[in-house]
Amino acid sequence: MRTRITTAVLAAALTPLALTLSAPAAHAVPAAAPYDFNGDGRTDLAIGAPGATVAGQAKAGAVSVVYGSTSGPKSSTRTLLTQNTAGMPGAAEADDAFGSALASADLNTDGYADLLVGTPGEDGSDTNDGTVTIVWGSASGLSGARTLFSFFSTDYDRYGRALAAGDFDGDGDADVAVGSTGPVTLSLVNGPITKTGPSNGGSGSGNDWWSSSNGITHLSSGDVTGDGHPRVVLHGRAAHNGAATTSLADMKISNYTDWLQKLPAGFVSAVGDIDGDGHGDIAVGNDREASADPEGALGGKVTVVYGGPDGPDSGRALLVLTQDTAGVPGAAEQGDRFGSGVSLGDVNGDGYADLAVGTAGENASAGAVTVLYGSASGLTTKGATAYTQNTAGVPGASEQGDRFGERVTLTDHTGDRRADLTVSAPGENAGDGAIWSLRATATGPTASGSTSFGPGTTGISTAGAPAYGTALNS
């Protein structure tokens, strides 16, 4: 059941803005899957490096897009994006942090997924106003861009620090949810969004579950109820003590932040159907110690919330995982950060979503990743496997501070309908960062033939600390 809570909302924020103009044209083609920018049926890989230096501007930020192929992400086939890229709005400036957040959907329903890039440090009407850029997909990949509509620029900062995309209002068009700080912490931009057309409206609000100074820190989304339109998982920090807060919003309801369902607290999340029942399940990662967050745990934890027709299924117990859980590789130790990154995808092609968990603090922040498998009865620890840079076949070597597993993603880069494992280590090589890709098989990710590349391979400067892999496909 939904729980009604008290909200602190701007008077105009919960009413969709009166910006809708003529009705959009009928959809000519089916919408593309997220992150398939060239429409070839393979998911492409977007990699954020918000610390990248661009034309001498420190921390201006950059994004590499590496296109999928039959052998996985192919670094020789790529697009480099910065605010200095031809056709991009704005200009690369120090501390813009372009690439801090990423999301994707076919916003203009032309059959090619489009890329959303958050730039929370962009100066607009005030310092760190923030902006979001849409880069358009096409048969040849990403090309051309526009700025996402921004309705409340005087009422928020760091717009674009968190992003999610999907048909949140159930009207058949992809919408965009944007996290920020300030009085308005969550904005909804209504679709469809076209290359040159006007706005179709939007709304925004704040909420007393999270502080306006911290705002929305992370967003994820998926069809939790099985009704065909995704809900949004919101992450923030509590106003009274700074603790993590996580909740589920149905943005089809006009006053969506007045009807939130509380979830186990964490800092990141992913949604996927672990047990194949048609309802998306939610994995929430909380990598903090109990001393740092009230709902943290020794070494970090991940909590799985099973979905049902009304959202979280109240008839099923939460599944709490740590490295001390039977069957999970390793042991829970202070600072491991189990749950630093989470992703859900069907690795072995059996029809059930599997879970990848990053443990970026493992072994003095060398890092590790664990993969656990879905089944008809839910997530199981049977056959769970851990990977590090010391795993045979994985390029490189585990070193202190690499933070291997800071972010993880499970998605099909090869077109074989199995989700490949991609891992980032933003601390690799003293903050350069790097990416690893492990091919999916019927028995799970294989290190055999795995590949790795860093910012220099995809055209990003290694000056300063680009932190390549701070953001990956959501």
Protein topology:
Elements: E1 3-4, E2 45-49, E3 62-67, E4 74-81, E5 101-105, E6 114-119, E7 131-135, E8 145-147, E9 157-166, E10 175-181, E11 186-189, E12 202-205, E13 216-222, E14 231-237, E15 244-249, E16 259-263, E17 268-272, E18 281-286, E19 301-305, E20 307-308, E21 311-312, E22 319-321, E23 338-345, E24 354-359, H1 362-365, E25 368-373, E26 380-387, E27 407-411, E28 420-425, H2 428-431, E29 434-441, E30 444-453, E31 471-472
Antiparallel strand pairs: 1-16, 2-3, 2-31, 3-4, 5-6, 6-7, 7-8, 9-10, 10-11, 11-12, 13-14, 14-15, 15-16, 17-18, 18-19, 19-22, 20-21, 23-24, 24-25, 25-26, 27-28, 28-29, 29-30
Averaged pLDDT: 91
The proportion of residues forming helix, as a percent range, comes to: under 10%
Give me the side-by-side strand order of the main sheet: 1-16-15-14-13
Pairing-aware structural class of the strands and helices?
mainly beta
Q: Strand fraction band?
A: 35-45%
Question: What summary fits the major beta sheet?
Answer: 5 strands, antiparallel
The stretches of 5 or more residues where confidence is low (pLDDT under 50) are 1-28
Overview of the structural elements:
This is Integrin-like protein. The chain has 474 residues and is mainly β. The chain is built from two helices and 31 strands. The strands form eight sheets. A five-stranded antiparallel β-sheet has the order 1-16-15-14-13, with no helix packed on it. The chain has a four-stranded antiparallel β-sheet with strand order 4-3-2-31, with no helix packed on it. The longest helix has 4 residues, at 362-365. Residues 1-28 have low confidence and may be disordered.
